[in-house]
Amino acid sequence: MTHSKPRPDVVTFGCRTNAFESEIIRDHLAKAPPGSRPRVVVNTCAVTAEAERQARQTIRRLRREHPEAEIVVTGCAAQLAPERWAELPGVARVLGNPDKLQADSWDPTTEAAAAAGPSIQVSDPEAVAALAPHLVAGFEDRARGFVQIQQGCDHRCTFCVIPLARGPNRSVAVERVIEQARALVAGGLHELVLTGVDLTSWGGELPGAPRLGALVAALLEAVPELPRLRLSSLDPAALDEQLLDLLAGHPRVMPHVHFSVQAGDDMILKRMKRRHDRARVIELCEHLGAARPEIVFGADLIAGFPTETEAMFANTRALIDQAGLAHLHVFPYSPRPGTPAARMRRLPGEVVKARAAELRAAGAARLEAVMQARLGQTAELVLEADGQARDPSFLPVRVDRAVSGLVPGRLIRVRFAAIDNGSLQAEVIG
């Protein structure tokens, strides 16, 4: 007798916003009546062609391993090209980004409907004025939770297709953000991450146009039982002074800031239609680093953007050291259909690949240096699965698994004893 592998209910690609929305999908799936056809959802990402390739590969694997399941494809890639995903063998339904959050979208489909061919339900994100009013109670297999504070983006970077998939900026009201945070903390989470597509745009369309710093301050005051708060990627062009003050010194705001930098050359930044320059990134890192020495910076970087010369690339490479960027998300440039950058003169693939590897190596060296400086120090952290964790500065940590009784999600105090395979090795001391 053969046994199939355990069936996941949702497979998530891409950003933390997708991870948050996958929990909403799980809640909807859990309400299916007994006897409903089992479903597997693939929540896709459209940032790069590689992300889409991995999603297609996953769909093929799921069809092979779970032939009894209805495969539903959603997320940004599905929003942008629903017919292409519906054509994949085994796909029964395609849902757009607005549709995947609505309970009505998850009413069980009949076998007859599935047999008739895949259905497509994709709404225009531009027409969705508000976010789905759904509280998430927890996150499967995660020690930290995500709180979505906004959706969409009003900017038009030349390389990015996400505004087409997510629509314009819409902000979650302060009261709703606080309610979601309280629910997650009450469920046992000690660490939350504020997330969105363009985090620093929060509040722009709300009455009085409050800034992100005001939201963070209100959340910290209203939920004193939350010990640790993080923010996902921030636009260097749009940090307000109140937010800078909180990042520089509030003990419950973790000392880790990730910037959406993309490049370290001003001409390339202009061609990307970014709103900051390299000097602004250095200024922010110097200011925050002087105020809070333990802070560690990260950045998104695109390697091999069209028209990037060796000298332009050298400026991006130099920025890693000049700004002290340690946590790097490096993306080899990937042309996205319909974007202005896709019409620009592209670099040879081997050049793009080599530049991405060089940036990753530089980031790894910087991260290693930061970890070396932490040896012998102590820290409090949230234990994750399999003995993994992140310190307050988001440095990767491996905890001594010989210690019994350690439960994922628990706050523990450790001492950093060594570095091995890119992680701090920690001894539990409390």
TrEMBL record:
<dbReference type="InterPro" id="IPR058240">
    <property type="entry name" value="rSAM_sf"/>
</dbReference>
<dbReference type="Pfam" id="PF00919">
    <property type="entry name" value="UPF0004"/>
</dbReference>
<dbReference type="GO" id="GO:0046872">
    <property type="term" value="F:metal ion binding"/>
</dbReference>
<dbReference type="InterPro" id="IPR006638">
    <property type="entry name" value="Elp3/MiaA/NifB-like_rSAM"/>
</dbReference>
<dbReference type="GO" id="GO:0051539">
    <property type="term" value="F:4 iron, 4 sulfur cluster binding"/>
</dbReference>
<keyword id="KW-0808">Transferase</keyword>
<keyword id="KW-0411">Iron-sulfur</keyword>
<dbReference type="GO" id="GO:0035598">
    <property type="term" value="F:tRNA (N(6)-L-threonylcarbamoyladenosine(37)-C(2))-methylthiotransferase activity"/>
</dbReference>
<dbReference type="Pfam" id="PF04055">
    <property type="entry name" value="Radical_SAM"/>
</dbReference>
<dbReference type="InterPro" id="IPR007197">
    <property type="entry name" value="rSAM"/>
</dbReference>
<dbReference type="InterPro" id="IPR002792">
    <property type="entry name" value="TRAM_dom"/>
</dbReference>
<keyword id="KW-0949">S-adenosyl-L-methionine</keyword>
<keyword id="KW-0479">Metal-binding</keyword>
<feature type="domain" description="Radical SAM core">
    <location>
        <begin position="139"/>
        <end position="369"/>
    </location>
</feature>
<dbReference type="InterPro" id="IPR020612">
    <property type="entry name" value="Methylthiotransferase_CS"/>
</dbReference>
<dbReference type="InterPro" id="IPR038135">
    <property type="entry name" value="Methylthiotransferase_N_sf"/>
</dbReference>
<protein>
    <recommendedName>
        <fullName>tRNA (N(6)-L-threonylcarbamoyladenosine(37)-C(2))-methylthiotransferase</fullName>
        <ecNumber>2.8.4.5</ecNumber>
    </recommendedName>
</protein>
<feature type="domain" description="MTTase N-terminal">
    <location>
        <begin position="6"/>
        <end position="111"/>
    </location>
</feature>
<comment type="function">
    <text>Catalyzes the methylthiolation of N6-threonylcarbamoyladenosine (t(6)A), leading to the formation of 2-methylthio-N6-threonylcarbamoyladenosine (ms(2)t(6)A) at position 37 in tRNAs that read codons beginning with adenine.</text>
</comment>
<dbReference type="InterPro" id="IPR005839">
    <property type="entry name" value="Methylthiotransferase"/>
</dbReference>
<dbReference type="InterPro" id="IPR013848">
    <property type="entry name" value="Methylthiotransferase_N"/>
</dbReference>
<dbReference type="InterPro" id="IPR023404">
    <property type="entry name" value="rSAM_horseshoe"/>
</dbReference>
<keyword id="KW-0004">4Fe-4S</keyword>
<keyword id="KW-0408">Iron</keyword>
<feature type="domain" description="TRAM">
    <location>
        <begin position="372"/>
        <end position="430"/>
    </location>
</feature>
<dbReference type="InterPro" id="IPR006467">
    <property type="entry name" value="MiaB-like_bact"/>
</dbReference>
